[in-house]
Amino acid sequence: KSSPLFRLQTAEDVLARLSFLNEGKEQVPGLIIMILDDTQGEDLDPTIQKMVVVFNANPDAVSFTDPALKNLDLALHPLQQVSADERLKSASYSNGTVTVPGRTTAIFVVAQEQATPKPTNSVVDAPVGAIATEAQPSVETASQQLPLTAILAVVAAIVLALLAGWFLLRR
Known about the structure:
Largest sheet: 5 strands, antiparallel
Structural class: alpha+beta
Order of helices and strands: HEEEEEHHEEEHH
Distance between the termini: 39 Å
Shape: globular
């Protein structure tokens, strides 16, 4: 399932946790970079500390460096690491620089160090009358998971709506 950071519930959360890089007169055209920060306020996602989402609408790969990205232990999102899209898997991070192939959206994450999977208590989680023998890992089928592309499409729509509102306000 997707991160709760993609479903911020209040304006205060959005203002505290969402920020954008690549702004101003020196911005790289066709590149949107947003940071979702779970170090502010209540811990919404027990596995992720920060997320850096990079939308590259350019036909060619783009590398982008920013001080806000320095000293982060960013890695390509685990679902994207095993993607069938070889171009997507080539997205990378090194020493404050993200590199994303053309016409690609890449998500980089900083995992929480204390994040550990919660064990399933088969006795408590079992239906009444069931006999619990041993804890079974929870397995979700593909139909129960929201595809990452759908999540990215929603995020892209939100970002575009925010940008459109910003441009209208500047008029």
